[in-house]
Specification:
By secondary structure, the chain is α/β, with parallel strands linked by helices. It contains 15 helices and ten strands. The two termini are 27 Å apart.
Length: 350
């Protein structure tokens, strides 16, 4: 995003809540005291930043200005400092799934899932990652645009042979999933199909990247690794078939389908649940395969293991979709123009 804003004449100051090192550790299990101490320290730093920020025309908030607590930063910036807010979100963050937390009351008090509504109401522009999220945001703010989460089509590229349906250089096909420990349990939706295929003699490896170290898929053999930002692109590229299972609960309807777009960008054919933002761009049988039940997961994975022609068609069509619309090269200039127009209108109305 930054290069496109700068190309439009804006000077950008980036103030992440967490650094890359902590971000990598955050999606691994354990180290709770270290994480809690770090988040508390960063919250105080964020408060100090909000009080002293100067010489800016607007503030871009991605999801939330602070990972914990109420919208105190957004309130200071908007109500006290009078700065226009550009609010970007790519998840149903008012629906944080806290059921898996061992301390639900504490988690709810710290996360404050409903605080996003305050920011949406105050924002000069809301950027939603899917049409579903945009519909909800328009309940409190008419200035909403759909801007999907994307990757660079120049960086996220297929390995040689992928668009022709070739499998990777490894001996056994790799079926895989890349995500976080908080969503790894969704793989339970695919387990019966994988077991059925294995029992019928189909050879494949199941690669799981980003699950907790203790994650176990009911005894099914896994090639499990921790998620690392610097390895993410390679982890996607080296898969032969991608999995994107998702349950239909309200919290998951807000998912934007970023995993599916990542698969498509590197030419990896995928099987996806029909949930959330995937409905905006997944076309069953053209750029991905949609699984509605256990039988679909079995049938689709089996076809992808057996058919090079199907793998090639899905990979090629998915890649064209990325290049034509769902990449930073397309969305970046559009985003810069949306922000520019909003701030000019905001300035003219004063």
């Amino acid at each position: 995003m930054f290069p496109y804003l700068e190309a439009a004449g804006w000077s950008v100051q980036f103030e992440p809540f967490v650094d890359e090192g902590f971000f990598s550790r955050f999606y691994s299990g354990g180290n709770r005291w270290e994480k809690a101490t770090y988040l508390a320290s960063r919250s105080l730093s964020r408060l100090a930043l909000a009080l002293r920020v100067a010489d800016v025309d607007a503030v871009f908030v991605q999801r939330e200005a602070s990972l914990i607590g109420p919208p105190y930063v957004e309130g200071i910036l908007s109500a006290v400092r009078g700065l226009p807010l550009i609010f970007d979100f790519d998840d149903a963050i008012w629906h944080y799934d806290l059921r898996r937390s061992k301390h639900q009351l504490a988690a709810r008090l710290l996360k404050r899932p409903s605080k996003c509504w305050y920011t949406m109401r105050k924002a000069a522009l809301v950027l939603a990652g899917s049409s579903f999220l945009a519909e909800r945001a328009r309940e409190v703010n008419p200035s909403v645009e759909v801007v999907p989460t994307v990757v660079s089509s120049a960086t996220w590229t297929p390995l040689p042979g992928r668009l022709q349906g070739e499998l990777g250089g490894h001996r056994i096909p790799r079926i895989g999933w890349v995500g976080s420990h908080s969503t790894a349990h969704q793989l339970e939706l695919v387990l019966p199909a994988l077991r059925r295929l294995r029992n019928q003699g189909h050879r494949f490896e199941l690669h799981v990247v980003g699950a907790d170290r203790s994650f176990d898929l009911d005894g099914f053999a896994l090639h499990a690794r921790s998620w690392r930002l610097e390895d993410e692109l390679r982890e996607f590229q080296e898969l032969d078939i991608g999995l994107a299972p998702m349950r239909g609960a309200p919290v998951y309807q807000g998912k934007c389908g970023f995993k599916q777009l990542q698969y498509m960008s590197v030419g990896v054919p995928c099987v996806s649940s029909w949930v959330g933002g995937a409905r905006d761009f997944v076309i069953d049988g053209e750029n991905a395969l949609v699984a509605l039940d256990e039988q679909d997961w079995y049938t689709h994975i089996k076809k992808l293991l057996e058919s090079r022609e199907l793998r090639a068609r899905l990979a090629s069509t998915g890649r064209r979709l990325i290049e034509s619309r769902y990449c930073s090269e397309r969305q970046g200039p559009r985003l810069a123009q949306l922000i520019d127009n909003t701030l000019r209108q905001n300035h003219a109305s004063r």
